[in-house]
Design brief:
single chain, alpha+beta, Aminopeptidase, two-stranded antiparallel sheet, 12 strands, globular, Ornithine_N-alpha-AT, lipid metabolism, acyltransferase, acyltransferase activity
Length: about 260
């Protein structure tokens, strides 16, 4: 059974310690480099994302925000390898970085009043050999543990939807996601995209094309803050998403806790 552990060291602390996996919060340079290489491997092999890594020559997905973030990693204990990751930009890190990554894609003025109690999460990925539902739940359980420890109420970030999905017209999955969130998952605040997605005329795709993170976030009662922004580097539509810790789906939370206790 997994246990919650706090305070191994300032650079690396274990949040959840399970039989096969552990969730570790780290700022160590060697861990961050491993995470960047994992992101490159995962993003470079995902349908709809492959082209984004085509110009990378050093085998790493990295940007200027990495050094200001806490990195939540999933370590597979038997092999001692990092198999999953999230990066988290807490309020002090956002100040040091000169703002949020999300602010490069959206005007976030409508959220100024909640900035001190909001973290930004992003660059989530899991190695293909470890994509059980339990591992993904374990990542979210670690994120919740982090939020509790730091006194954070809101988590926000961009959830990416590929513009092109094999077998469908361009933008079909984006349209399907947008129609769903507009009908059922709109937030009370709205942010403005800096680079609006092109008009989509394709018929909406099947929900089976939704990225797992989209489905998971919506199950957690995440809400969408408005229209997506187009990211030409990754060729994705980034939907601005926010989760209020006080409105979290309790049943799903229990599943996360059970998952954390069984891995």
């Amino acid at each position: 059974m997994a246990t919650l552990v706090i305070g191994r060291s300032p650079a690396s602390e274990t949040l959840i310690d399970g039989a096969e996996y552990e969730v570790v919060l780290t700022t160590r340079d060697e861990d961050i480099e491993t995470v960047q290489r994992l992101r490159f491997e995962v993003f470079g092999s995902e349908p709809g994302f492959e082209a984004s890594m085509a110009g990378v020559t050093d085998g790493r997905d990295a940007d200027r925000f990495d050094e200001f973030c806490d990195h939540l990693i999933i370590r597979h204990k038997p092999s001692e390898t990092i198999v999953g990751c999230y990066r988290i930009l807490p309020p002090p890190g956002a100040i040091a970085a000169g703002g949020l990554y999300l602010a490069t894609e959206f005007d976030l003025g409508a959220l100024d009043h909640i900035r001190p109690e909001t973290l930004e999460m992003g660059r989530a990925c899991v190695h293909a050999d470890h994509r059980s539902g339990g591992v993904l739940c374990l990542m979210w359980a670690g994120l919740l543990a982090y939020s509790d420890l730091r006194g954070i109420r809101y988590a926000m970030g961009a959830v990416s939807v590929p513009m092109q999905y094999e077998g469908y017209d361009r933008g079909a999955t984006v349209r399907a996601v947008r129609e769903l969130v507009d009908a059922k998952h709109r937030a009370e605040w709205t942010v403005t995209p800096r680079n609006r997605v092109e008009e989509i005329t394709a018929a909406p795709a099947s929900r089976r094309t939704f990225p797992p993170l989209v489905t998971g976030y919506l199950r957690m009662n995440a809400e969408i803050l408005g229209a997506p922004s187009f990211d030409p580097v990754f060729d994705v539509a980034d939907f601005p998403m926010i989760i209020d810790r006080t409105r979290f789906n309790v049943r799903y939370l229990e599943r996360l806790q059970q998952a954390a206790g069984s891995l």
